[in-house]
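Summary for the funding panel

The consortium committed to producing paired sequence-structure records for every protein in the target list. Below we show the first two records in order, beginning with the earlier of the two.
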Amino acid sequence: MHATFSLAVRGVVAAFALAALAGCQKSQSQPPVMPPPEVTVAVVQPRDLPANFEYVAQISGVREVEVRPRVSGILEKWNFIEGAKVVRGQSLFTIDAAPFRAALARAEADLVSAQATMDQAKRNAGRLKPLYEAKAVSQKEYDDASSGEQIASANVKAAQAAVTEARLNLAYTRVEAPISGITSRALQSEGTLVQAQQTLLTKISQIDPVHVIFSFTESEHLKFTRAMADGTLRLPKDGRFDVKLKLADGSEFSRPGKVDFTDVRVDPNTGTIEARAVIANPQGLLRPGQFARVQLSGGVRPNAIAIPQRAVLEGPGSKIVLTVNAQGIVEPRPVRVGDWTAGEDWIITGGLKAGDQVIVDGVVKARPGSPVKIAQAPPAGAQPGQPPQGQPGQGEQQPAAKPAATANAPQPAK
């Protein structure tokens, strides 16, 4: 009896052992199902976006004049302080005036002589006129007297012009500032022989306001024009963009400006189109020749689609984004990209529509055709682009490289 019971117990234990072994083998052949990965998405929503452009620019005075002598002679004296402000009409240099005084005296003497000759010719013609009427002199004698009077009158006018020219040349020995502004250094020393219309004496720049000169390429202009034609870009009236300057030290100039000119021609040497802005400079911080970066604002991209740059990936032959459909399945989507916005967004010109859910964070865990779980929004105060807590943030697929900066051209100002 005892032996029979012992055999029964052993049979039950063996049965349980076989069942447990079968269960282990079954669990090893079927691994546990992993939950779908969490991702953060951005819902595509078209909206009006600002269109800003940035270029390298150079400062120039609103008026810049090269001061050159109008007469040749010896430079006698400087009459100004280099680098100081001057006003229009102020004397800058004096050229030796002695030769020009002599020339004026000679011209005045020639005028007196011509006047005397004309008076004599008038008297002769006056005496012959009654004799001619009385048939006492010939027609030739009277005509000669009349012609002599006309020639003498012409000689007087020529002498008067010579006197006027001599007086002007004497006045030009005082070299004056043609405009008000700030002078550069004097380029010729006292005692130098200067040549009329050739020798550069100094320069004067009017620096309040200043001009900001910048250029954009022909291809940028074409891209810009097409965007306006298809309605994806809207510009300020007459192309009068608002302007801000970034200086060489990274600071922003305090006063804004306006674009006031865009050239209609393309420079054949550089293939660029020149544009200009004007900015007030009452404190003289901006100087001619200075380099800066000009930022243009005032344009609008109506109904534009923009997504974070990190959501755009490099695909085979094109850029792609990963989207989540209504069933929670990942779908790759090829897209066409445009310019960058002022922040970290990339404008999408094709491939997406309103309502699409684009994966922004968690792309390394997302697989095309696989389900994903959309994570909750990041907590308040999180840095932009920081993945939600518990979501992998390292080792994700690198986003597409940022393209070379392309800034569209401003609309020509009329």
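The next record, for a separate protein in the list, is shown here:
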Amino acid sequence: MPPIKINHIAIVVEDVQAALSFWKDALGVPLQHVEHNEDEAVDIAFMPLGEGEIELIAPFTEDSGVAKYLAKKGSGLHHLCLDVDDIEGALAQLKAKDVELINETPRTRPDGTRYAFVHPKSTGGVLLELYEKV
């Protein structure tokens, strides 16, 4: 299950448009698009950088997982995402090694990308997302 590459680094922010004033306007990272994701209750700004992306994520409800994270830890690095060839195989391998998973089965984004999260307790404190692109 070797990762192919870093897919994205996600940064949790209070407001995507306000955060874009630094990332896009001051730093010059291009904005690809902003998505309103009802399933995760977040707005996401996708900003391609090198072979991966920076994602700015902001909750739009007070009870979502990201909103709770923001309230507890504040703005900053939220998670690292790695591409894998076979997400079900990767999850099975991690589970066999007693790695704590947040998602035991993959979820699916509207574009067909399958994803799952690995708990920070098992990664040395980093929330890890695995992506299997279609």
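Regarding this second record: The first strand starts at residue 6 and ends at 12. The helical segments are 16-26, 65-73, 87-96.
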